[in-house]
Amino acid sequence: MSRELENLAKDLRKFLANADEEDFILKAAPKPKRAAFVSVKATKEEVSTTQKTASTKTKKTPLTKEQELAELAQKICNCKNCPLGLTRIKAVPGEGNINARIMFIGEGPGFDEDRQGRPFVGRAGQLLDKIIAAMGFKREEVFIANMVKCHPMIDPTNPDKHGNDRPPQMDEIARCRKFVEKQIVLVNPDYIVALGGVATKSLINEHTPLSALRGKLFDLKLDHYTPEKNIKILATYHPAALLRNPGWKKEAWQNLKVLLADMGAKFPSSQSKKED
Ligand code: SF4
Fold it and tell me: Is the dihedral of CA 186, 190, 195, 199 positive or negative?
């Protein structure tokens, strides 16, 4: 009995001793505070790591095609890289379907485009809309741009004068060229239609007359970028030239039929009347 009492007393001392120790630890180093501190510290680290990860992600996340084109348009609107930027009213970056199969490229904005900041919105633009429709597309299904993005004027001191348009000069095209090339690689169309001699000389061959290049498909070669795929380019008359020379419309339609045939598009022969 005395041995049992001794063992019981021993267990009781041990229990009390442990209880005292725990109680001491709680008072001397309160676990919740330590835990809270570690937790806060960890939270700060986590926040900072999260922020770093987020900022890294922001840096690394590539822009969408739409964002890149919008950013490019903004650059064009702020550009003063050639004298045309000093006299324009509005820059005309270009517009259309960012996934277009066909891109139409003219030489530069005119009077109406300069005021609206949109390509091909004057009389020539209305004819281009008809041409696009005759090809079986809507304007919003294609992408429309120009070699230069600001209005080249004969008399830049008089932007309100009608008939003040002139073709862009080669040095103006050279300074602006990166913009249209970037648009081409971003849209990545299957075909480009070069409208008129300036776009044709710039994008196909500057030494061969337009008459020898029209209605033939060429592989596009760019100066500043490499397209993802082979893009075919076809030259035809500028709509403004067709307005001045309505007799050329039939020939222009024959040019465009080469592209349509290459696309495998089927169109009734009566559609050729739509060019009028
Ligand atoms: S024409 Fe082109 S290069 Fe010249 S100012 Fe306009 S956007 Fe810039």
Answer: positive
